[in-house]
Q: What sequence folds into this?
């Protein structure tokens, strides 16, 4: 096997990892700040894809319709997320983790049915935006421009998120809430509003992941479930609530998956799970996470 | 006024009393239809019902069978064996249907088949493809008027054997169907063409969104051709990502569902050309008067193109009607005997039903994907089907499977 094959496999894994980091960082952010394990995160990913699809089909004549969908789709999903936090999730913060899981799981079922009612059960698909439909020839292989775009989008969004959390007032307040919500409350911070903003941001990231994959995958009601499992693996490997841990987790997940498929395709499915199990045994708080006291 | 109405009522009572045969003749032949009418399976369940209703309307317009009209009573099995069985019981015991038909899920089909055997009621499987329904678990009252898994894997193997490629990569979804299809394909291909090489074999989780690592691994493997049992969303994602990567220019692709009309419509212009896909009903190539007429009627009724579900629903109603006409009775035993001997004119051609396993000898076509101006999806070109006797399990195989049970 030559170098170009390795390199292509690396790039395939990288593009998958960089998409995963966008989705998983939303899950991790919400857990890190709010202590909510949002099972419905996969549904927001699915809705992101569907809303992007809806915009594209509503504006068939406009050449940049995918970009409008990519912008609007995740925003609409974030709005829905904000409403859910405000009216439903807020009521169960003090409850047991199991109640939260059940409630967010219920949203998966609800959104699946809503999507079926609006768009039906057929597989939907949108075309690749024309500016990115070409491919780049490197080392006798071709890398689609869209994959290159995905590889760049992951770090770009992550850097944006990092700047938001480090350099802005709301970001600092979010971090303060993450480290000690009660102290934040005692100091007069509006934790309620902050939680709402964090959830909206987390949901936006999930929706963005869905919108980004929509030109490459089949959009269907079942897509929520497969992604949530992978997102959990990424977050567990990297460390729940750890910002850079999610990036590392997604990168490792993508590479393990890609090279597992290259060398042992019959057993490739188990690699990410084995990795997660190893991390849980050796460092239960994840590679870059902090152990709980 | 009242008197006149009373007169009418008395007149009707007299008619009914004195012409008992008249009222009996008006009693329709009832077919209980159980299929997935909600959920993901309804992609097949709804068109199948439309196909059955078109057939019933045609037969009824010509006066029905033995002077009786055909009536279809439809129920949703929700793709669950429990629900399917409950609906079957209700249809037979309280609605008193004469025959049962339907299902896309093989698990539902097996549940209903067991009940049909116990009740001695004919059950015609419409879309479910597991070979076990008619082979190991087959019995006198179960029929399948559609293709089955062995037919399309073995047809694929025959077509692949004619191609010059020898280095194979095999890939499929990681569950029973994905694995068994690959096994069936490979066993048959190895038998037909022993000098082939299996480079590697991979299984992806059902619903994988990202196939790029698989695609680049296949490209790196040195394989010339890849057989895949992916279908639905998995195939759509595989096709889109592969096309963007130029994968299909380097690796010959073959798969039973890769010419499937539902996926072809979803993919639209993103469908790669030149891949070897399968079809249960390539109406664009058959162009028989029967098929053209059916496509037109189906399109008028639904606005869509007919696929395996639609053609199956239509063929089942016609088969039952023809068998009843031949038996000159709706009696189950006589109709079973008749079904084993009739030849039915259907959109996919003349169908006969084999006595040993009650499997219709429905051909399965393979051809290369190609866009032509007449259709909004990629059709299959140079379609070819093999003699059904070559691609369905042989009598010996079925006897052996049943003996093992």
A:
């Amino acid at each position: 096997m030559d170098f170009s094959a390795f390199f292509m496999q690396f790039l395939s894994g990288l593009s998958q990892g960089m998409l995963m980091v966008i989705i998983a960082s939303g899950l991790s952010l919400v857990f890190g700040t709010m202590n909510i394990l949002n099972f419905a995160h996969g549904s927001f990913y699915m809705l992101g894809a569907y809303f992007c699809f809806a915009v594209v089909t509503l504006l068939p004549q406009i050449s940049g319709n995918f970009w409008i969908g990519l912008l609007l789709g995740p925003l609409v999903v974030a709005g829905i997320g904000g409403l859910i936090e405000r009216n439903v999730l807020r009521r169960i913060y003090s409850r047991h983790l199991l109640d939260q899981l059940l409630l967010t799981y219920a949203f998966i079922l609800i959104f699946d049915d809503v999507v079926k009612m609006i768009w039906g059960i057929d597989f939907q698909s949108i075309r690749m935006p024309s500016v990115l439909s070409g491919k780049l020839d490197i080392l006798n292989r071709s890398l689609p421009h869209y994959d290159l775009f995905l590889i760049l989008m992951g770090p770009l969004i992550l850097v944006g998120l990092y700047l938001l959390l480090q350099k802005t007032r709301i970001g600092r307040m979010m971090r303060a809430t993450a480290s000690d919500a009660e102290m934040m409350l005692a100091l007069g911070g509006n934790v309620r509003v902050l939680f709402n903003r964090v959830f909206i941001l987390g949901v936006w990231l999930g929706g963005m992941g869905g919108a980004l994959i929509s030109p490459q995958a089949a959009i269907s009601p079942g897509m929520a479930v497969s992604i949530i499992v992978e997102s959990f693996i990424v977050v567990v490997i990297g460390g729940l609530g750890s910002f850079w841990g999610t990036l590392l987790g997604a990168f490792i997940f993508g590479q393990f998956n890609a090279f597992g498929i290259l060398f042992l395709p019959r057993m490739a499915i188990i690699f990410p799970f084995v990795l997660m199990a190893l991390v849980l045994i050796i460092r239960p708080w994840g590679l870059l996470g902090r152990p709980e006291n | 006024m009242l008197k006149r109405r009373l007169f009418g009522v008395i007149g009707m009572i007299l008619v009914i009393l004195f012409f008992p045969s008249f009222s009996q003749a008006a009693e329709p032949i009832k077919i209980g239809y159980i299929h997935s009418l909600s959920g993901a399976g309804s992609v097949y369940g709804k068109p199948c019902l439309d196909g059955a209703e078109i057939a019933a309307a045609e037969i009824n317009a010509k006066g029905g069978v033995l002077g009786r009209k055909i009536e279809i009573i439809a129920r949703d099995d929700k793709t669950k064996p429990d629900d399917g069985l409950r609906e079957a019981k209700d249809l037979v015991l309280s609605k008193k249907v004469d025959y049962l038909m339907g299902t896309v899920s093989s698990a539902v089909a097996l549940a209903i088949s067991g009940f049909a055997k116990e009740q001695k009621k004919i059950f015609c499987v419409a879309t479910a493809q597991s070979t076990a329904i008619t082979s190991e678990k087959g019995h006198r009252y179960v029929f399948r008027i559609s293709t089955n898994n062995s037919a399309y894997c073995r047809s694929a193997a025959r077509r692949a054997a004619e191609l010059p490629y020898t280095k194979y990569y095999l890939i499929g979804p990681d569950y029973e169907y994905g694995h068994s299809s690959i096994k069936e394909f490979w066993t048959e291909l190895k038998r037909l063409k022993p000098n082939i090489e299996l480079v590697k074999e991979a299984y992806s989780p059902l619903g994988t969104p990202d196939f790029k690592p698989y695609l680049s691994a296949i490209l790196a493997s040195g394989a010339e051709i890849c057989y895949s049992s992916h279908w639905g969303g998995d195939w759509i994602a595989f096709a889109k990502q592969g096309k963007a990567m130029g994968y299909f220019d380097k690796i010959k692709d073959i798969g039973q569902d890769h010419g499937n009309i539902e996926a072809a419509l979803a993919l639209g212009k993103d469908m790669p050309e030149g891949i070897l896909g399968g079809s249960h009903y390539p109406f664009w190539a058959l162009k028989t008067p029967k098929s053209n007429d059916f496509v037109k009627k189906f399109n008028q009724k639904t606005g869509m193109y007919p696929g395996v579900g639609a053609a199956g629903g239509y063929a089942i109603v016609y088969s039952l009607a023809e068998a009843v006409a031949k038996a000159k009775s709706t009696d189950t035993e006589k109709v079973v005997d008749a079904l084993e001997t009739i030849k039915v004119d259907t959109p996919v051609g003349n169908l006969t039903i084999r006595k040993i396993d009650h499997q219709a000898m429905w051909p399965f076509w393979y051809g290369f994907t190609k866009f032509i101006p007449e259709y909004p999806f990629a059709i299959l070109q140079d379609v070819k089907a093999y003699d059904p006797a070559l691609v369905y399990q042989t009598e010996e195989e079925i006897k052996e499977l049943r003996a093992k049970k």
Chain A has a mean pLDDT of 90.
